[in-house]
Amino acid sequence: MPRRPVKTRQRGRRWVTRAGTLGSVPPKHPQANTLRTRITGLVRELGKFGVVGGIAFTVDFVLFNILLSSGLETLTAKAVSTIVATTIAFFGNRFWTWRDGEHTNMARQYTTFFVLNLIGLGIALACLAISHYGLGQIWPQLQSPLADNIAGVGVGTVLGTMFRFWSYRRFVFRVTAAPAPVSQ
């Protein structure tokens, strides 16, 4: 059956069906829809953050190996590749992941971003140090390359990434606008 528009006071126009037909059922709990919207937005944000991080990681890895093969010293190569990858991550997060965030002073934002990135790196290094040098003194198996990769790349990267996501949202790219209302 054809539907006709009906004007209500609270919501403006809303489509309803004629008597005797089934229409959409309004949600019993309005907060459920808000929660679903927030979770969907967070998942979308995490996805974008992951894509940007994956691209930055790839740039870091490839550039580091190119610089090493060209004869650059190891620490200099890593410093250059890290700075380039961090800059790519900054611009990707600023203009894509959190494009609706607060963007007042790019130099301050980049500095804060870089410092928080260093803290995230410190978390990964701390996990590696605890495993290799601390627990490795008790259990020598934790000083193997496999254990170092699990502690540093696995656990350390996961914890560092969780910290980065939280801190970038909280301190670097704060969203000041209220979320768009949900239309039904």
Would you mind describing this structure in some detail?
It is a multi-pass membrane protein. This is GtrA family protein. The chain crosses the membrane at residues 46-68, 74-92, 113-134, 146-166. Its main location: membrane. It comes from Actinoplanes subglobosus. The chain is mainly alpha-helical and 184 residues long. Helices cover 68% and strands 5% of the residues. The chain is built from 4 helices and 2 strands; from the N terminus they run ββαααα. The chain has helices at 30-69, 74-97, 106-138, 145-172; strands at 4-8, 12-16. The chain has a two-stranded antiparallel ribbon with strand order 1-2. The longest helix has 40 residues, at 30-69. The chain is globular, with a radius of gyration of 24 Å.
Keywords:
GtrA_DPMS_TM; mainly alpha; membrane; two-stranded antiparallel sheet; 5% strand; 184 residues; GtrA family protein; transmembrane; transmembrane helix
